[in-house]
């Protein structure tokens, strides 16, 4: 049932859990240039800290990306620039050998100056701002109990998604005219799974 009701397909992103035993710090950065636009840059930082070795750990990731636009309008150059911010936090616990807890938060704040649509010369006739904002927060809790004979898993997740934008309808009127569109979505999902563990012995 994964991806049911998805209109344009599903991309499943699996992120690393917090490591219960090892400290880890890593970073990466990049820089580039957009033809017809300007400079772009990106940076990411990840930190993993075991709070109680083998029992409790936390992992945090933060990222920022800025891209130059390449489309010009009569009132502004490179109108379709963007800034994207991502934050992830995971807490993993193993209080007992047979019981584990996983909690996570994934938050994103993305801002775009305008839609990336233009003629072949990278120009648009729009004379009003058409900003787009896309925000989401995803929370999850996973409980797993795995004694020697059975596996019981409970997963609960909550997603809050928001998309706001302005569309330029000036071409249909004699004066600048924009239409605001907004989408808000709240999704709560919970599922439990139980399976019997089977042992295999070599003869």
Model description:
The protein is mostly beta strands and 203 residues long. The chain is built from no helices and eight strands. It has an eight-stranded antiparallel β-sheet, with no helix packed on it. The protein is elongated. The model has no long low-confidence stretch (mean pLDDT 89).
Could you outline the blueprint of secondary structure elements for this entry?
Blueprint: E1 24-33, E2 39-52, E3 56-67, E4 82-96, E5 99-112, E6 132-145, E7 150-168, E8 178-196
Antiparallel strand pairs: 1-2, 2-3, 3-4, 4-5, 5-6, 6-7, 7-8
Gyration radius, rounded: 23 Å
Side-by-side strand order of the widest sheet: 1-2-3-4-5-6-7-8
* Content-based structural category: mainly beta
The outline comes out as: elongated
Query: What value does the average pLDDT take?
Result: 89
Q: Measure the end-to-end span.
A: 38 Å
Residue stretches low in confidence (pLDDT < 50, at least 5 long) are: none
How would you sum up the major sheet?
A: 8 strands, antiparallel
Count of extended strands: 8
Beta strand %: over 45%
Q: Please give the count of helices.
A: 0
- The helix/strand series, from N terminus to C terminus, equals EEEEEEEE
Proportion of helical residues: under 10%
């Amino acid at each position: 049932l994964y991806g049911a009701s998805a209109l344009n397909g599903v991309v499943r992103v699996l992120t690393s859990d917090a490591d219960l035993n090892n400290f880890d710090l890593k970073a990466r950065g990049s820089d580039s240039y957009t033809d017809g636009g300007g400079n772009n840059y990106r940076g990411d930082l990840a930190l993993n800290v075991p709070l109680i070795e083998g029992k409790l750990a936390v992992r945090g990731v933060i990222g920022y990306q800025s891209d130059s636009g390449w489309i010009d309008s009569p009132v502004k150059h490179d109108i379709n620039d963007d800034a994207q911010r991502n934050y992830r936090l995971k807490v993993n616990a193993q209080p007992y050998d047979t019981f584990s807890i996983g909690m996570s938060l994934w938050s994103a704040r993305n801002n775009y100056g305008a839609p990336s649509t233009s003629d072949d010369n990278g120009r648009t006739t729009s004379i009003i701002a058409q900003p787009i904002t896309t925000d989401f927060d995803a929370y999850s809790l996973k409980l797993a109990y795995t004694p020697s004979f059975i596996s019981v898993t409970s997963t609960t997740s909550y997603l809050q998604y928001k998309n706001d934008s302005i569309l330029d309808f000036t071409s249909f009127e004699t004066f600048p005219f924009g239409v605001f569109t907004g989408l808000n979505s709240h999704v709560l999902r919970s599922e439990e799974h139980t399976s019997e563990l089977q042992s295999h012995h070599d003869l």
